[in-house]
Specification:
Largest sheet: 5 strands, mixed
Distance between the termini: 36 Å
Helix content: 25-40%
Strand content: 15-25%
Mean pLDDT: 92
Bound molecules: zinc ion
Strand order of the largest sheet: 3-2-1-4-8
Length: 331
Amino acid sequence: MSQRAGRPAVPLVPAQRTIASVGMEVNVDYLGIRVMDLAGTMLAERVEEGDFRASDPTAVLARLAGMYTEVVGPVADEVPSVGVCLAVPGLVDRITGPLRFAPNLRWRNVDVAGLFTSAAGMSGVELLLGNEATLAARAEAAALRHTEIRTFLYLSGEVGIGGALVVDGAVFAGRHGWSGEIGHTVVDPAGPRCVCGSTGCLEQYAGKDALMRGAAMDLALPVSALISAAEIGEAGALRSLADGAAALGTALANAVNLVDVGTVVLGGIYAPLAPYLLPGITAQLQDRVLSAPWSPPQVLAAQARDYAALSGAASVGLAQVTADPSAWLER
Ligand SMILES: [Zn+2]
């Protein structure tokens, strides 16, 4: 509470269930939809697992449209919806433009918004597109808004690895919105071929598939299986996580040397894996970040868990309302 003289401030709390916004995600091993209201309450959600490596965009987006009808339909009858934003694991050209490249989906130059809105019942839906890691970092920045941590490097671990630089609470997007592709920074030029066409990218050492493969586990298993194996001290799992952590730490050290951030936040699958990754990552940062003796970078597990990109995507529509409420009320 303010200690200043005068009438005490009345905290504003947005009314629940007045305005809803929809966040969606196409990722390599799941599709998701989350509906949230202005107060941040989740009104509806569905996540369907699947294998979308090298998938057909038309079929995947038609399935997502079907989910939209079933999940958003009943909510939209009672709460007006202000926006729909879809998170994708790739390079989005401008916010409503085509998806240029999503390496793990093998989608190139796909008009995602056009395909989605041409599915049955979706005409009239205004779809915004965003990068998965950028939107997850947005949710993390919101979760950390009452803390000292306003500038950080966010890492989103899935089958692919995304990243985002958050400066004073806002994601630094880069010239085209394509910044943060830490998954395709090089760990070893002589390393294995990556889905992007290059060799030795971080993703090939520390993405979910790489971690599962290193532990000799089925790639289709959820990351919770790897955590269970690590918890009982299974040597292959622990070795795979240590190798992944060393690769992550190396790439992160390069990034931290370049941008001078004090905090690295581990999101996506790296949040629950943090206890096993932190020692290896921290060791690399200590050894390789030039400024570490005076200001060692801290590494934290993300606060925004459970499909953070869905919350970040839903927040895009809500932010348009809070930025200019009168424009929305006139509609
Ligand atoms: Zn790559």
